[in-house]
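Task: encode each sequence below as structure tokens.

Item 1
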Amino acid sequence: MVEVSTITKKGQATIPKRLRQKYGLKDKVIFEESECGLVLKPLPSPSEMRGSLKKYFKGKTAKQLLDEARKDEIAEDKELERRFRKMHV
């Protein structure tokens, strides 16, 4: 089925109710360019996104991730200091 919507001078268009309901479009949408044209996707709410990054962090807590990042940063700083001293001796 084809739906037609008018775009106002301000660039606003009304998404037909049937499509908003079918695709769960509420307050905000994402516009994505594709080979076929524009794709509208619902913008997930923060509560819907909760836990979506778990697979990337392998079950580690935020504190564990911060501690690891700090250790890495300290090690990098020490290496830079070592190189600097070596160059200026």
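Item 2
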Amino acid sequence: MREHRRIMQGRVISDKMAKTVIVEIEERSSHPLYGKVVTQTRRFKAHNDEPVIAKAGDLVKIIESRPMSHAKRWRVHEIVQRGEIVEQIVEKELEELRATEEAVRAARRAEEERRAAERLSKLAGEDETAEDDAAESEVQ
């Protein structure tokens, strides 16, 4: 007798459990009445053991298997494509944004200090000229 096990392909979204990954499968179909493309996502817990170890972000094929726990009835069959972990990418982008934001703040502070110095020198120059004018008027 030949076994017919279902095989699905999806992306690993979590690998925080020991020997278990959560795989999200997207199914796109056209709505029967309106024709709009509808995306449905389903999540499966899959056994992730030694010969094939999948990490978050990987595109994997999962195959139906015997029940391994209350919710785990699939196992990782193969890794189709290694993926970059989205959280690491987001962290890198955040670090870059923070660095550019800090550079902008430093530039603003320098500009404000320069303007303050100009105002002070201008005020000091006006005060000197006002004192000079007052001294000249007293002399006359």
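Check on item 2: The helical segments are 86-139. The chain has a mean pLDDT of 88.
End of task.
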